[in-house]
């Protein structure tokens, strides 16, 4: 399977975030890339550098004011006397029905959902290359390859059309799905990350052409808290085209696979022409986030079930944090996926 990844994706190197109010080192580190590359190589993948696809495929799912914000906010932030090195919001609107603020501090609150997506001088460039890896993987699948893997880092599934959050800036899975829509009338996104894919859900919530399905730890006591419940089914034309499967904390392989079977049956009923797999490996039992208990062998079983859908598939990397088995978990998934092809 072809893997797409650009060295420029390393340049974003966030330092901190708040966890239950306490300052902690940011776990979304560039070294994740080395573990994921090793895992892809061990599965027999060839590594390719994507082309610069410009802003068009990104602007297809994100607002112009948000992209302008991402591009310029760090430079503007540095003009504030005594400002932090990284852009971290210190105010959030209760709701966003008011005016669009002109100031850097106001816009940071408007466009950043939480404190876990600090923006440095390099963030926008890295996020664009991460998205272009997804675009290139989608183009590869549209040209006839059965599947491709986009090693997207920074990840994307918590980014809404105009909001960053949860280590995410540009929604790579949404960009891939929208790119696939050029050739496919219907595209499904299956998100198997530990955390609910709230940004992806938000982007497609009113649409019937992109089915969004997410299996994740129950948000009642877990990030992203405000989204991911089973009664979120879409709205307007999109009603019935969003499907959430929250799982009890520490659920293991069998419970996950049971939910996956239900997810796959929903996808089959939708009859898409292409699939995006938002692949988080943080559902692993040894992941530092500790939300679910999927085993390394379990990732191969998950992949086999998804591959049995027999759909042209773009696999987009989402979460999965530093632990001994991170490489092996990716190898397990990609090998399991390939074994069904
Ligand atoms: Zn996650």
UniProtKB/TrEMBL annotation:
Keywords attached to this Swiss-Prot or TrEMBL record, sorted alphabetically, are: Hydrolase, Metal-binding, Zinc
Q: Does the keyword Nucleus apply?
A: no
Tree of life domain: Bacteria
MF terms per GO, please?
histone deacetylase activity; hydrolase activity; metal ion binding
Which family is this protein grouped under?
Belongs to the histone deacetylase family.
| Chain residue ranges for the region called Disordered | 1-29
| All residue ranges annotated as the Histone deacetylase domain in the record | 27-335
Does Methyltransferase appear among the keywords?
no
Cofactor(s) this protein cannot do without: Zn(2+)
What InterPro entries would the database entry show?
Answer: HDACs, His_deacetylse_dom, His_deacetylse_dom_sf, Ureohydrolase_dom_sf
* Record's protein name: Histone deacetylase family protein
Compositionally biased residues, Basic and acidic residues: 1-15
């Amino acid at each position: 399977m072809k893997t797409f990844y650009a060295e420029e994706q390393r340049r974003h190197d966030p330092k901190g975030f708040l966890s239950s109010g306490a300052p902690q080192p940011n776990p979304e580190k560039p070294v994740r890339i080395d573990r994921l590359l090793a895992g892809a190589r061990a599965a027999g993948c060839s590594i390719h550098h994507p082309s610069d696809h410009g802003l068009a495929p990104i602007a297809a799912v994100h607002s112009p004011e948000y992209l302008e914000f991402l591009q310029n906010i760090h430079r503007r932030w540095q003009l504030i006397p005594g400002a932090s090195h990284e852009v971290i919001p210190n105010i959030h609107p209760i709701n966003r029905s008011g005016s669009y603020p002109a100031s850097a501090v106001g816009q940071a609150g408007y466009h950043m959902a939480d404190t876990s997506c600090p923006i440095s001088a390099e963030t926008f460039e890295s996020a664009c290359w991460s998205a272009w890896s997804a675009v290139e993987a989608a183009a590869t699948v549209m040209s006839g390859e059965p599947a491709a893997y986009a090693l997207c880092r920074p990840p994307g599934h918590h980014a809404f059309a105009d909001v960053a959050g949860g280590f995410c800036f540009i929604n790579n899975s949404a960009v891939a799905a929208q790119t696939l829509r050029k050739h496919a009338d219907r595209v499904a996104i299956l998100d198997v990350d530990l955390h609910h894919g709230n940004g992806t859900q938000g982007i497609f919530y009113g649409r019937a052409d992109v089915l969004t399905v997410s299996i994740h730890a129950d948000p009642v006591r877990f990030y992203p808290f405000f989204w991911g419940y089973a009664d979120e089914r879409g709205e307007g034309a999109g009603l019935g085209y969003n499907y959430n499967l929250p799982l009890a904390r520490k659920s293991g392989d069998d419970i996950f696979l049971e939910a996956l079977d239900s997810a796959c049956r929903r996808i089959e009923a939708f009859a898409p022409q292409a699939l995006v797999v938002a692949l988080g490996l943080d559902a692993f039992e040894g992941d530092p986030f500790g939300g679910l208990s999927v085993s390394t062998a379990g990732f191969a079983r998950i992949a086999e079930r998804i591959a049995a859908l027999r759909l042209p598939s773009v696999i987009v990397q989402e979460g999965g944090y530093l632990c001994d088995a991170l490489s092996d978990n990716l190898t397990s998934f990609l090998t399991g996926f390939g074994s069904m092809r």
